[in-house]
Amino acid sequence: MADPKGFMSTPRQEWPRRPVVERVRDWDEVYVPGALLPIVSAQANRCMDCGVPFCHDACPLGNLIPEWNDLVARSDWRAASERLHATNNFPEFTGRLCPAPCEAGCVLAINQPAVTIKNVEWAIAERAWEEGFVPPRPPDRLSGKTVAVIGSGPTGLAAAQQLTRAGHTVAVYEKDDRIGGLMRYGIPEFKMEKRFLDRRLEQMRAEGTRFRTSTAVGRDVPAPELRSRYDAVVIATGATAWRELAVPGRELAGVHQAMEYLPPANRVCAGDLEANPLSAAGRHVVIVGGGDTGADCLGTAVREGAASVTQLDIYARPGGERDAEAEPWPTYPKLYRLSGAHEEAGELRTAPAADADARLFAASTLRFTGDDRGRVKELHLVEVDERRQPVAGTERVLPADLVLLALGFSGPDRADGLIDQLGLETEPRGTLARDGEFATNVPGVFAAGDAARGQSLIVWAIAEGRAVAAAVDRYLMGESWLEAPISPHDRPMAV
């Protein structure tokens, strides 16, 4: 490491966010432009270059974090970019969207604030693009083998890039009109501007990856026909079957799934729509669900000018410090975290009745009531105990003109017919079944990402894409030099 005492002399300093009153007026990313680079080398210098770096194990990609921290501390950006891209196809995505389990596994985090690994990663990725350190890497020769990748989220894109670079002819099929999956239409612009996604796609096109948009396999192209045209198929459609809320009043107008609300908001930013047909402007919004998707809805509703926004989380409010007995280091602890959207809602007081920022914790929805036109008007809730059982006498009513359900996803959507047409076996929870080589029960068809693993983090999605690419390469060629960072059965570190 560059400075053996860096972690003792330099306090943790994160990339500052723009003032709330400024950033809620636009859709730009929330951080102060140019404010990270002046501090990032000193922050990288806090890395202790541990003999056993648990940040490696906490990250499914096995990112070489101490190595590129040291290189950034020494201002060797080219070498840092090489080490970062050696394990991660898309660090500009994870640097923005990953919740950084690597920081929870940082040895320094045992008794001090962790190294700002995520910020360092972002800085390396952006410096690499600015300096031209990430040119297209087309293969030296083609294998003569063809692969279809169904789905263009982080898993599909990582698999496609790896297989293209290995010399195979790869086509990515996407049912939407643009490539990117939930990164395109699920992630709001203020969390990741889509120009960064487009930049990486241009690199992939230059390498030889082909993209087929507005093509739903199973509906627009019969799945057996597609299978017959390619030597191998990778299914990376994600887990897009959203979970429902079976309570009285669910049928009322104005109660929508989060993924019915977020995509049109992103289309407004892309210039496809003048306004979101489900716009929160002037409405009392209640978001049911305490996860990242709920926070994305929160930040979007604030920017659209909602009259109020409240987010319900069925779990009790977590503490601010790790519980060493319940969630020992280096597992990822459940802590009270303040995302950019929650910071905005708290400062603007969008939910006067909330426990903190815009959230009501330990809150469960009982029913919705509507007006005489059949539109939702109120949400009835109750407090719950640690077993999620209602607490008597705690019922409350919130005004609700728009209710957004952000309850997560259960597995791949079967509506297009892909799963049934190929006769793919599924697990009891609805995900695609696969063996230790990512292979399904259909020869030559592989499954990866959330479609097989279940809803997970972007860093796991990319790791799945890299690993399934290695498996497909072995299937086609008998051996592979591609890295496989995880197996289908690996799971995050947990108690």
From TrEMBL:
- Presence of the UniProt keyword Acetylation in the record: no
Per UniProt, residues of the 4Fe-4S ferredoxin-type domain are: 38-69
Q: Name the domain of life this protein comes from.
A: Bacteria
Cite the annotated pathway.
Amino-acid biosynthesis
Coiled-coil annotated residue ranges, if any:
none
Q: Which GO terms describe its molecular function?
A: iron-sulfur cluster binding; metal ion binding; oxidoreductase activity, acting on the CH-NH2 group of donors, NAD or NADP as acceptor
Q: Which residues cross the membrane?
A: none
Q: List, alphabetically, the InterPro entries matched.
A: 4Fe4S_Fe-S-bd, DPD_II, FAD/NAD-bd_sf, FAD/NAD-binding_dom, Glut_synth_ssu1, Glutamate_Synthase, Helical_ferredxn
Q: What does the entry give for GO biological process?
A: glutamate biosynthetic process
Q: Which key words are in the record?
A: Amino-acid biosynthesis, Glutamate biosynthesis, Iron, Iron-sulfur, Metal-binding, Oxidoreductase
Q: Per its record, how is this protein called by name? A: Glutamate synthase subunit beta
| Organism whose genome encodes this protein | Streptomyces bauhiniae
